[in-house]
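Bump. Still looking for YbjN domain-containing protein structure tokens.
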Amino acid sequence: MTAPRNELQRIMRALEASGLSVEAVEDGALVRDGDSRVALFADADHRGGVIVRLHLDLDLYVEEDALPDILMGMNLLNQGLDYGTLNLDPVDDEDLGEDAPLTFAVLGRAVLWLRDLGAEELERLREHLRRFEAEVTEAVERTLHGGKGLSA
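Sorry for the wait, here they are.
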């Protein structure tokens, strides 16, 4: 059940007022802060409130043969994350031949429930968004540029 468009627009206005660049995309919004881009989607909760889903595309791709090592590394990284998780999504690339290895995109994801769209809850969303992006990006960069971790 999707939140009424005016709720998403209220969220977008609040994020813009806090200094973030926000633009509407299909059924959600794209929030930009510097080089980072987080997709934001809002759904009405049948118990009241709004469920906000955040997706951070990390521009990392993994081929099927590297999955065992990657999954172990992601599991370890996820244990240290407070504001989101790393997930793998299959990349649907019709341009590749049938014999091409299956490829997965590494994404950061988070979900936050807001009891309403009052100032306090919108501030909590801004803080969650900021910490989610920073925490996931830092964990991945530290792992990729450190001596051990993910190898794709």
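Residues 2 and 43 are 4 Å apart (CA to CA).

Edit: fixed formatting.
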